[in-house]
Every structure is written in C-alpha cells, then in structure tokens.
Amino acid sequence: MPGWTGDPTWLLDVLKADGQINVRALGGWDSRGHGDFKDIRGIMVHHTGGPASAESIRDGRPDLRGPLSQLHISRDGVVSVVAAGVSWHAGTGSLPWIPANMGNWHLIGIECEWPYRGGIGEHNQRDEPWRRPQILAIRNTCAAILRKLAFGADRITTHKEYAGRSQGKWDPGNMDPNWLRDEIAKDLRGVKFPGEGTPDYTPPPTPVPVPPVDQYAGVLLYRGMRGPAVVKLQQRLKAVIVSQLVVDGDFGPKTEAAVRAFQSSKYRRPPLVADGIVGPATAAQLGLVL
Ligand SMILES: [Zn+2]
Question: What is one Pfam family matched by this protein (predicted)?
Fold first, then answer.
C-alpha cells in the first residue's frame, strides 16, 4: 500500500519534528508545484550542477520552470522546503516500482547542492567528497520522510538509477546509491553518526553557563589561517568534538569540518550558524580564550 496520496504538506512539520535537521521553508511552499502528487512511493536524491540556492530550485531556469524539487539541501546542510506539489526533477526514466516516466508524480525530489565551488564534471567527481554536515542532513531528511511514510531505505533512489539510461544522468556524483541506502537504513535503526552525538561529542552532564561574549569580541579564525591561535582552537575542538583532530596550527579542511560539526550540534545554546568560521559567538561556546 502506498504510504501517502496527494501532496506532502506535512514535509516541514516532519523535518522540524526530527529535531536534528536545520530546516527552513521558502514562503508559499505548501501551495507551490506543477499540480498534485499521485501516491508517494519514495525519494529521489539529486545533485545540482554546481552552486545552486534553494531559491534557484524554486524559480527554475529559462528552459525549465520551477519548482525543480520539493527539497534543497545546501552544502552546509541547511534543508529548505521549496514545494509541496509536483516538481520537475525526475524527467523520463524508469524503476521497477514506478510507472515509466512518472517519477515526478510519485517521488519526493531532493536537490543536494554540489559541495564545492569549483567546476563540476564526471572527470572530477571522485575528487570532491560530500561534506559531513550535508551528508548528515541527507541521511536525517530521508530517514524522517521514510518514517512518516512507513517505508524502508529501499524506497530511496537516485537520478542516475532512474534516468541514467534515458537521459544520461549521473547524479548524485561521487555517491554510491547502495551506500546511501545503507547509511539511511542505519539511521532508521537509530545509529548515531559522528557529529550527531556520541561518540564524537558527549553533552556535559550539567549545563555550562555561556560566558559573556565581550571577552571573545576579537576572535576571528577561518580556513587558511595558521599560528598559535589556530593551535588553541584545535586543542578546544579536539577536547570537545573531534578527538582525532591533529593539532598542527593549520586551519585546513579538517579543522573547518570540526568547527562546523561543533556549530551544527543540537546542543548549541543559542544555535550557531554552521559556517566553519570561528567568531565571537562560536568562541564563547567553545570557551576559546586567545
Ligand atoms: Zn537530477
């Protein structure tokens, strides 16, 4: 039996209720779409062909009117609810459990922003791994929707599986669909991933008072910086969130990923913007005194 017939107007509530997803909605999402869904049978995961905002998915392109998918997940792991109605994401293709060329009427589409600013192409796809906050958001989003629909991870598909033959699609690049389904199945079983909770991060047993921000007012550390301030930052990150982090005084991609993991933790009070940049608010919660 299909889990749901008609538009998924519950998307925002379901993603918010998960508690781990950094979710926002684009105004008017619940009445946006190219007509109504038939029965929803699963989820199709895509990548955008380069940098692409949620707004661009809403608006579409000169040759293809938006919305282009129901959901957008940015490279920083922010999930945007773009539309509740049918969106033009699947096109022609087929799967054993979807009527031929009818993916748009049976599958919730998720456009995942290509994680790097550089050019995109099959030649470099293996060199550009997906970032952890984005992968976590993809897992959590897919799992939350599957739970709502009472489906298993076998109802996750990708554009390349559906349309590889008919349209030459290869998205999402650098992501094995079987790996993705396996990761989402783990999430459905309650497995926590690094950056989501234990073992990389354990919340303190009692709330730690947040120090006043003013003593951190001068802190600004970001990728590309080097020196003793970065050493202190790495020591704090190593202590509180990524025990394997190498303390070398070089603010590289791993340090940036650790900062983002810290910032995106649901234990942050107040919540932090997961931008990978250590300013006064992040420094205050890290207890980073320079
Ligand atoms: Zn696609």
Answer: PG_binding_1
